User: What shape does this take?
Amino acid sequence: MLSGPRPAWVTFDCYGTLIQWDEGLRDAVLAILAGRTGAIDPGRLIEAYDRHEHAIEQAEPHRRFRDIAGTALRLAMQELGVASDERDAATLTGAISRMPPFPEVVPALAALKAVGFRLCIISNTDDDVIAGNVAQLGGHIDRVVTAQQAGAYKPSRRIFEHAHQALGAGKNDVVHVCASPHLDLVATRALGLRDVWIDRGTGRRPADGYAPDAVLPTLDGLPALFKDAGWF
Assistant: This one.
């Protein structure tokens, strides 16, 4: 269970936590594959895309997410023997910007704001890509910190350190909420941050048996969790 002093800030991963990433990515891939000859498994393309995307994000020098997404998609399609062009990358990044929030997200954010928490997104993306997603979050987000701003991608601690510096917050001033155990929970563990894992049943698990401070199936459990911690 969560404990310690009440945080001033609640920070969130965006895609998969607030925004429907898996669902939106599958829709984007289906649109990209539509009309192409041959039977191509969308799941295999998504797996290959994810693998290439994360590998490129950790390579130097730092690159914009829009560039990484296009390169990862091209490499994934090439791996599966499918020709690609620039229109495919534009379809993907455009689809990411339009991905909607999970149904419970906006009311949950509103409830946290109503009891005085400040809300920040920390995300592996570009400012212009995430803008379309943030616009769907009811105006409840106070700050957005991206990999573009920090010059680093999760799980690097640099993006979190950049965010905390921008917020003027120490580790006791923050609780991080995420659905990505392979990125965010790696960083929160290394930094000693209090964390809440939103386990949406994707099958992804924390590395090395790491146990976050709290686990919820959806975001709407956060207000009650924070109340139980004595934070309001």
Summary: The first helix runs from residue 21 to 33.
